[in-house]
Amino acid sequence: MNTPLGNQTLLLYLILSLAQNTVVVERWWQVPLSKEGRPPRLYPRRHQVYKVVEDTKHAPKEKMELILAQTVAKLGGRGDTVFVKKSVGRNNLLAQGLAVYPSPENKEMFAEELRLLHEGRPEERIQTRTGQLTVEILKHMELKVEKRTSIEYDITKEIVCRQILKKRGIFVPPHALRLPEESIKDLGDYWCEVTVNGIDTVRIPMSVVPFEDPTATGRKLLKKQKQEETDAAAVQEAATVSEAATVPEATQGKKAVPPTENQKKDKEPHD
């Protein structure tokens, strides 16, 4: 291909540069059908007016699906399938060997590896990323279990599991929970142990407290507010009484002034 050097450079640049975005347009004025054997009648100005149908620049970007080959903080563990931005996947995960493409071979390999880890001995198992996050949440947890004092019953595993699900949103099956051997009937401080995926066990401090009815709590709060208002009114009344008591004392402290000669003459009777 005989082309000048400048054209070769331009051609090479066009070949290497990729289209980043695509804009779909259509003619505002449709071109009329031409008669058979005749060229179409085009109006240069009218038929060069276009309207935008779709602009992919502002469309939501599709994320890249990858399988992590190593544990990545805040993303997942080895064998987890993640969806990330294409720039992050290409420049960080794939470039550093932290992830691979989800090909059928890779999916089968990691599935087999995960199966062996779950079926192996406990000391050989590896905790998943979700399991690690669950363990961290349980380590900083203090559980409060409400118990009705008017009814005698034991705190069972099912009750504790429901409380954990209610307070933290973590589902704990009863077989993964362990309570003290003695039955829990009275109020006080106890403990419970949760085993995550059969690998890590976390001991959680647990307190059994009396049950409070929400309506009773509302009445108690209203009673407290009324008591505060009564106390404030009593303090205000006491301050007013003390101010009134100080006024006579100030008056008594003043000495009487004797009348002058003119005042005495005015008081004498006139003939």
Written account of the structure:
- Belongs to the bacterial ribosomal protein bL9 family.
- Pfam families: bL9m_N (PF25131), Ribosomal_bL9m_C (PF22078), Ribosomal_L9_N (PF01281).
- One of its GO terms (cellular component) is ribosome.
- GO terms for molecular function: structural constituent of ribosome.
- By secondary structure, the chain is an alpha+beta fold.
- Among the domains are: 60 residues, 3-Layer(aba) Sandwich (Ribosomal Protein L9, domain 1), CATH 3.40.5.10; 83 residues, Ribosomal Protein L9, domain 2, CATH 3.10.430.100.
- It is built from 7 helices and 9 strands; from the N terminus they run αββββαβααβαβββαα.
- The strands form 3 sheets. A 4-stranded mixed sheet has the order 6-9-8-7. The chain has a 3-stranded antiparallel sheet with strand order 4-3-5.
- The N and C termini lie far apart (150 Å).
